[in-house]
Amino acid sequence: MVSAAPDHNPYSDITFQAFSQFVVQNFSSKVSLATVLVVLFTTTSNPDLLNLHARQQNPVQGERGQTISGWIKALAHALEEKLGDNVDRLFKQSEHKENMQSNQINSGISIKLDTLSKVLKFYPYDTNGKRQKALKPVSEKEIEPAYVICPTSMECQTVSCNGQYFLLDKRDRDVPRVTLIKGAKTYDGVHVLSGKCTKCDTKYYADHESSKDPGVVGESRRFYLNSAKYLKVGQSLWVDRSFSGAVINATYSFHASSAAFAEFWNDSFWSIQETSSRKLSRRLVWHAFVQESIRRVAQSSGHTLELQDGLPIDDVTKHAFLSLGEKGVVRSAENHFCSECTHDYKNTADIITGDDPAGLVGVDENRNVPVLTGEDADLAVQDAAQARLDAENAMDIDQTPSPSEATPVKLVVMDGVVMGPTHCAYGDCTQDLAKLKGGVLCVHHEILYGNLCRMHDCNRPKVALTHTCAQHQHRWYKHVV
Questions:
Q1: Residues 83, 41: contact at Cβ < 8 Å?
Q2: Phi and psi, residue 326, nearest 5°
């Protein structure tokens, strides 16, 4: 039989009365709850040090035992620095701490920590000095707080209500139980509460408010709160702002895609936690990116985003840009320049290869490229040769170019992926692409014109995998270079 040993020890099961007696017998009557908790968590958070201390207390033949080891003294010194002036409360008045020297104070705290470890049964030896199993990190799952996600407003914000309080909107049996990611920790079974003003019927949630639309019967308007502490990013998943902020920072700092961040999170945090929640998906990460971006952009521009309630996330993104973007420019991104997104204009590419113009980037690697055939195929070869010749004979210009020539080229990277338009290229069609990879048309126009050249509405049969015909092939190649 083989069984896996747990990586953590359960939290101490001693009674509160036993712990209370230890506090009364060892600490000042004026000791604060905060000081007691610091001492408690200092003891339970250092199992490796207590293993070393206990080993020296229980020597074998040829060893010299130490009641107060250097290990426990080092822990006492760290606790003394942590508490500062509050360390006085660790001593009873009868112990006369004011008359003690520093080494005596350290020894006194060490004795109290040693006693507490035994009271908590956080000691790897029994009363007969027989060694038991070594101490492991203590699981804090049993003492985790019960988090509740609820509105941050104390009273109704509608002017006509004049500070009316609002009531809990749901009965206990109808309150959703969700997963909450708070920082790097995942919590299961978190209650999500909402409120409702009985005067104006405005509903209050942790991340938004919802009220009736006066202009449309049966419709509601949603107000996205910039000050929200938690954001809903899935049907049963909420995250705090530190997590959603990490998604934003990873996207812009490392150009991480939603899938890459989800994989990183699952491998780094989800896999080592005791949770019944599912792995993070790229859709949830993208949802967190959108929700956090909306708040940041709206807050920087001094606005609160207001949209129709119940919109899907794709429509939220579109309407948020129309509302927060000023003529296509998001105000918080204006005047931003950095070495990664802004470069000087170049008339000629740095590298112009001697490859055949019929080659397709990312398709023909390690293969023999067939000779380009068809009408005007020779023009493509001439254009490529002329481009190489011009680059070789280009003059080095030391003088400062004119402002028009020096205008920088700015590239904005969204979601860590550089890609072309994701809507249909036919006419004024704005439908989504039928195939995001390599496609340029929606489903309807792919059926009608999928095998025709789309260069300036040429409508000739296209060549191989490209979206151009033989006549426009050389011009497409120049565009790619």
A1: no
A2: -100, 100
The whole-number average pLDDT for the span 80-98 is 91
- Which residues, other chains included, contact 312 with Cβ-Cβ below 8 Å and sequence gap of 6+? none
Residue 448, C-beta contacts closer than 8 angstroms, at least 6 positions apart: none
Separation of alpha carbons 359 and 289, rounded Å: 38
Check if the beta carbon of residue 153 is closer than 8 Å to that of residue 164: no
Residue range 241-300, pLDDT digits in tens? 999 999 999 988 888 889 999 999 999 999 988 888 889 999 999 999 999 999 998 888
**How many Å apart are CA 380 and CA 469, to the nearest integer?**
13
Rounded to an integer, what distance in angstroms lies between the CA atom of residue 20 and that of residue 26? 10
pLDDT score at 25: 93
pLDDT at 190 over 90: yes
Residue listed under structure tokens 């909107």: 169
- Please calculate the CA angle 264-265-266 and round it to the nearest 5 degrees: 95
pTM: 0.65
Mean pLDDT of 469-473: 56
Cβ–Cβ < 8 Å for 298, 226:
yes
Mean of pLDDT values over 197-225: 87
Between CA 219 and CA 213 the distance in angstroms is 5
